[in-house]
């Protein structure tokens, strides 16, 4: 007989259950901008990959560690485009 705890554990990988949309919703741009401002880690120059995108990229790399870095960035950019947080 199993304890009830085992039935609560999700089967499969974590990334099967959460996606980049959940990450983007939890770590929205306003939150990331506040963290950057408070930590004093703002960009000194305008870059193609601003700091708020790089923070999400690091989080995504941890979640999708079995994917290539190129694939993680592709997914992330696609998700940010859908959210309107990615320019041209």
What's a quick, concise take on this entry?
This protein is mostly helical and 88 residues long. It has helices at residues 4-8, 20-26, 29-39, 51-63, 69-83.
Question: How are the secondary structure elements laid out?
Answer:
Layout: H1 4-8, H2 20-26, H3 29-39, H4 51-63, H5 69-83
Helix pairs in contact: 4-5
Keywords:
88 residues; mainly alpha; 0% strand; globular
Give a written overview of the molecule:
With 88 residues, the chain is mainly alpha-helical. It has one domain (12-83). It has helices spanning 4-8, 20-26, 29-39, 51-63, 69-83. Helix 4 (51-63) packs across helix 5 (69-83). It starts with a helix and ends in a 5-residue tail after the last helix. The mean pLDDT is 79.
Rg value: 16 Å
Quaternary state of the chains: single chain
Low-confidence stretches: none
Identify the overall geometry: globular
Biggest pleated-sheet summary:
none
The number of strands is: 0
**Head-to-tail CA distance between termini:** 56 Å
Alpha-beta classification:
mainly alpha
Helix share of residues?
55-70%
Would you tell me the overall average pLDDT? Answer: 79
Strand content: under 5%
What number of domains? 1
Spell the H/E element sequence. HHHHH
Number of helices: 5
